[in-house]
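Figure 2 data, in text form.
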Amino acid sequence: MPDILVAKGIVKSFPVGKEKLVVLKGASLSVRQGEMIAIRGASGVGKSTFLHILGALDSPDEGSVQVNGVDITRLRDRQRAEFRNSAIGFVFQFYHLLADFNLLENVLFPAKISGKLSGKNKSRLLNKANQLLDLVGLGNRLKHKPGQLSGGEQQGAAIPSALLNQPRIILA
């Protein structure tokens, strides 16, 4: 199986006053297609920062990240956003649901911003979103807004949202 995700020599720091806090010091990772891995460590060691870089949500100070052979660290902002939307699914720690949208609209949001929620795709994506919400036990909560859902239900909604665009990689 080929490597689907390769990170090499990732360095990331953040300014803290006049100092620089180095969070990642040459982190590397290789993941093969179909492989599931866990990144573990104490609080504050850079796990979320590393995931944000792997998912093209942030850029490293040094190093590279390749997804399916594409060096996402070299992409321009718009290219990176388009790539992220089509190739990477996210299950965020803090839900990231839009308060004014109901559950179904939140799940469909990644498809909407990519322009895929129109024409022939619309009915297919609506059906798929409904099926995915049923699979996680939320098929009866489609019209509920995030404030009307429990924390577990909000977290559960992140899974169908991450899977809707059929990404090659899921980061959770």
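Caption note: The chain has a mean pLDDT of 90.
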